[in-house]
Amino acid sequence: MRLNTKPNPNPSEKAFTLSEVAMSVGIVAAVLLPILGLLATGSRLATTSQDHAAASAIANAVSGSLRFEGKQNPRPVVILGESEQILDTAGSSPVFASFSGSGEFLEFVEEATYQSGVTAGSDALHLAAITLEPTTMPAGSIFRSHPLLQLKIEVASPALAAESTRSKTIFHSRVGAP
Q1: Is the pLDDT of residue 1 over 60?
Q2: DSSP string, 102-166
Q3: Residue 146, in any domain of the structure
Q4: pLDDT value for 140
Q5: In which domain, by residue range, is 136 found?
Q6: Mind listing the pLDDT tens digit for each residue in 47-59?
Q7: What percent of the chain has pLDDT over 70?
Q8: Residues in Cβ contact with 107 at an 8 Å cutoff, skipping those fewer than 6 apart
């Protein structure tokens, strides 16, 4: 019996060997796996970026809504939407509010809701704790004669989670008291 060693003239019967297929699959896997890892990282960074943008919008809205009302002994008030809350200038009792994913104010909430998270079905994606506390200026500061208050806005998400498991972004600003 004699083996045919001539190349096959019929091109439809040509094929890859098993080793060629295994090498090409290995090359494709070596290229695609790092790309898939980058996609996951990119998605996580995009989510983080959206959270930071919303937190910044919330801090902007809160700091822009701070007003001092009253002629004698003016009191600081945060006015968001149609609601308002008086802030304690001693910093001992923060005001809590819920916001949508885009940073739109939804409602003021109780401290217990802030700590445990909002109920399922709520539109809230972010919760904010707003505190106003006295601050001292160093000796020789030009602001020494006018009291400044420190506005602290802590934005946490997701709002459904308990306080200890949320990611938080904290904003600090100084506000001149009249």
Answers
A1: no
A2: TS-EEEEE-HHHHHH-PPTT----EEEEEEEEEE-PPTT-TTTTS-EEEEEEEEEE-TTS-GGGS
A3: yes
A4: 67
A5: 34-176
A6: 888 888 888 999 9
A7: 83
A8: 81, 83, 97, 98
For the chain, how far is it from start to end, CA to CA, in angstroms?
Answer: 109
SS (H, E, C) 82-110: CEEEECCCCCCCCEEEEECCCCCEEEEEC
Report d(CA 164, CA 15) in Å as an integer: 60
d(CA 75, CA 68): 5
Q: How far apart are CA 33 and CA 49, in angstroms?
A: 24
Residue with tokens 């083996």: 3
Count structural domains, the chain.
1
Structural domain contains residue 85: yes
| Strands 75-80 and 66-69, bridge-based pairing | antiparallel
- Residues 104-150 have pLDDT tens digits of 899 899 999 999 999 888 888 899 999 888 877 666 666 556 667 88
The two tokens of residue 159 are 């709002």
CA 96 to chain centre: 17
Torsion of the alpha carbons at 167, 100, 81 and 90, rounded to the nearest 10: -10
Q: Kindly report the CA angle at 52 between 83 and 159, in degrees rounded to 5?
A: 55
CA-CA distance, 13 to 24, in Å (whole number)? 20
